[in-house]
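note to self: dont lose this again. the chain is below, predicted strucutre after it. 156 aa total, dont forget to put it in the shared folder this time
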Amino acid sequence: MPLIEDFTDFEAFKRCRDFTRKVGGLIRTDSLRRDLDLVRQIRRASVSILSNFAEGFEREGRQEFLQFLSFSKGSVGEIRAQLMYAVDEGYLEEALQKDADHVGREATRLIGGLMKHLNKSEIPGRKYLAQDGSGHKKGRQIGATQNSKPKTRNSL
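---
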């Protein structure tokens, strides 16, 4: 499996971007713009989805990436709920909300799958890799903690 070099390479990010584009189109409709506070809140949450995904990846640590993915996932859920509210208030047609909700569910499913994968990974992140990619840095190996023995090829 090739190493992902950029956050835009993740299918989860691509689906989140699809969701934010769809939401962007909805918040520009005249009917939804009747509630500018709601539109502003949705816009902030929408920006947060992509920004947190990117920031977490660029921090180059697995735990940090997981934390920021959690924020992104939460923002997707926040917008999904806000669009339901918009339907209930008569600002948005239910068919449009359901269409966006479908994309949002797919985005959260992919983020959740990525989080599950990262939780199982022994690699703590790119910032812990040595320049030669060996997993050694300052005398430590990838997967080793302060209280554990470093793993060798034979013990895997």
